[in-house]
Amino acid sequence: MSDADHDLPHEGPIKTPKQLVWAVVAALVIPIIGIIVLVNSVVSQKTPAAGSDALTAEAVAKRLQPVGRVEIKDATDTASFKSGEQVYAVQCAACHTAGVAGAPKLGDAAAWGPRLKTGYEALMTSALKGKGAMGAQGGGDYNDVEIGRAVVYLANQSGGKLEEPKVAAAAPVVPAAAAAPAPAAAVAPAAVVAAAAPAAPAVVAKADAVSALYTQACAACHVSGVANAPKLGDKAAWAPRLAAGVDGLTASAIKGKGAMPPRGGSAASDAEIKAVVAYMVSTVK
User: Is residue 67 situated within a structural domain?
Assistant: First the structure.
């Protein structure tokens, strides 16, 4: 480049007043358009689409439902007992449908043959106490009659001919008029104790509900690592999964993954599943 080139005037892209005006307008308008597009994008993601049922009373109630529930069972109400098929669907299907960890599949007469020869009592003992990777009561929370019904259902669907356990008749209720009146001295202390006892905190009830659901739906596999399920508290096994976060892990639990059926084979709500996932994650942090 010669010295003469250095002496030439340097010109920019804007050469006329009209070009300057357009440059100023563009500098102002383009950022404003970008901001409007960004705001519309964010608002459209949060605002339910027209015609959706996101704001119906049912949908709102579902989002606001409590994480935990406390269920009180009446041991004398035999009509409320679950059938063998119901217990199987909630508690046993996770392993006995796919044959996880050597569990005999439902309907597999060859696998159940040797087990059926041991008889109902032996099968019932294994179900109640646990055997191999299967936790006590399959990790669930059912009474002996319901567990017995599930054992019979599994056995009879797989070539057995077992009879369902009999339900003991409830003791007759003594009419209030026939009952002997309690001495006044005995009633007073009981009333004082009842008045002095504080109400159980809601937090305890919630924690108990999460623990119960974990025991019912997750413990059977996550305690012993059945089918490569990460064990509870095993930081090394959970480390690569934590990157997905609680929401990502919850989505996998709800949809099912690998040998794990949707919702762990339970009927728990999305909020309950998320609470259990958060509990399991908390043990490795």
Answer: no
Instruction: Please answer whether residues 144 and 166 qualify as being in contact, where contact means their C-beta atoms are separated by less than 8 angstroms.
Output: no
- Residue 169, domain member (yes or no): no
DSSP H/E element including 172: none
DSSP 260: B
Among 161, 132, 167, which Cα is nearest to 147's?
167
Domain of 108 in residue numbering reads as 80-156
Distance between CA atoms of 269 and 179, rounded to whole angstroms?
Answer: 44
CA 170, chain centre distance (Å)? 34
**Is this prediction's pTM over 0.85?**
no
Which phi and psi (to 5°) does residue 257 adopt?
A: -155, 130
CA 7 → CA 1, 10, 229, distances in Å?
11, 9, 77
Taking a C-beta distance cutoff of 8 angstroms, is the pair 169, 153 a contact? no
Cβ neighbours of residue 170 closer than 8 Å, sequence gap 6 or more: 76, 78
Q: Compute the distance between CA of residue 116 and CA of residue 158 in angstroms, rounded to an integer.
A: 9
Domains in the chain, number: 2
Cα separation, 269 vs 62, whole angstroms: 9
CA distance 244 to 230: 14
The tens digit of pLDDT for each residue in 134-176 reads 777 665 667 788 888 888 888 888 888 888 887 766 555 555 5
| CATH number, residue 114 | 1.10.760.10
Cα 3 from Cα 172, distance rounded (Å): 118
Within the chain, residue ranges assigned H as helices are 3-7, 17-46, 57-64, 84-87, 93-96, 109-116, 120-129, 144-156, 184-196, 202-213, 219-222, 235-242, 245-255, 270-282
